[in-house]
Amino acid sequence: MAKKIFSGVQPSGNLHLGNYLGAIKNFVELNNDKDNKCVFCVVDLHAITVSQNPKELKNNIYETVATFLASGIDPKKSIIFNQSGVRAHSE
Question: Chain-wide mean pLDDT for the chain?
Fold first, then answer.
């Protein structure tokens, strides 16, 4: 039976081993299971609950997506998107 999985990561700009072991490694395993339908989100709207430098936030968003891809999340198998790209989320 297919499982639908949705999870997100804030683009904090300080991705480290704990992020990898605690979340991203699991995302890759979930992505590689053919029975799963995964959606992974960069929750950039959650990040703006505290003051952000816009340039740094933009770079952190790119870094988070790059980490997803470099870790082995396949965008042909899973959806990867930025939360702010979905207007309905904030409406």
Answer: 91
Cα angle for residues 34, 10, 72 (degrees, 5° grid): 35
Rounded-to-integer distance, Cα 77 and Cα 91, Å: 29
Confirm if 78 and 40 have CB atoms less than 8 A apart. yes
Distance CA 35, CA 37 (A): 7
Cα–Cα distances in angstroms (integers) from residue 23 to residues 35, 39, 70, 85, 88, in the given order: 19, 13, 14, 22, 26
pLDDT single digits (tens) 43-85: 999 888 889 899 999 999 999 999 999 999 999 999 999 999 9
The percent of residues in the chain predicted with pLDDT above 70, rounded, is: 100
**In sequence order, what are the residues at sequence separation of 6 or more whose Cβ sits closer than 8 angstroms to the Cβ of residue 38?**
5, 6, 7, 27, 30, 31, 73, 77, 78, 79
